[in-house]
């Protein structure tokens, strides 16, 4: 096939991109979006600060725009994200009472997952709950006020609101098998699966430096998949976009049957949150870069 999405579909996978609602009116952007991708992730529009700016008052306009367009185009939607320490309104961050925060978290998950019910392929239910460099939990307000149990509570709440969407745990720096953070997330997933906590998938953000994925990435994906979850590459970008590093990432996913798809974190370099590193598959003018050809051939 001659597009990323169509080529990925030949092995039953998707190839997606992060989408920003504010860019949809740009013709170059939307032309590439519709031509190349069969999945989308709203880049910021589903985050807590965008959807529940004040308690109990929900705004889904920008996310609806992305989701409506994706559904019309036949693209899958990854929902990103329900519980995260970042882009979190200060009214949530300042809650100190466990009963209040538990209710607030459950209400947020229920309202958002219910709003998008029937349109979401997979939800990043909890994002980035582990600290870097150690196996410890990140000291977020959720961790500090609710303790370890908040993650499974979030997954159970999401399942009750949307029984069909796949429910993912998503994080970065969990691509290298021997890292303490990878091991800690692995132990959590193993524990959840053994106790029947509703977790269906693990998202590997994959924000890589110029050297690309670690040599162990393929085995990391395979080891997680062996626990009985799907794995997905959810936010791929690679500094300077070396063709080989991109191809290696695609090959790692393709080598694991339960690696169901890859999402790049933006379309053109100029759309990237790391735009200074030119980490994407299209240049600022929308031309295909060398990495594009390498990905298409590896898919
Ligand atoms: C980034 C967006 O790309 C930026 O536009 C925003 O300013 C900050 O967040 N991990 C995630 C994503 O899970 O939501 C982040 O996206 C990048 C890191």
Mean pLDDT: 98
Task: Give the DSSP E fraction (strand runs of 2 or more residues).
Answer: 15-25%
- What's the count of strands? 9
Rg from alpha-carbon coordinates: 18 Å
In the sheet with the most strands, the strands line up as 1-2-3-4-5-6-8-9
Distance from N terminus to C terminus (CA atoms, Å) equals: 10 Å
Secondary-structure element order, N to C: HEHEHHEHHEHHEHEEHEHEH
- Structural class designation: alpha/beta
Q: How would a textbook summarize the main sheet?
A: 8 strands, parallel, barrel
Number of helices: 12
Net shape: globular
**Range of helix content:** 25-40%
Which blocks of ≥5 consecutive residues have pLDDT under 50? Answer: none
Family: Belongs to the glycosyl hydrolase 10 (cellulase F) family.
Organism: Streptomyces nogalater
Subcellular location: Secreted
Protein name: Beta-xylanase
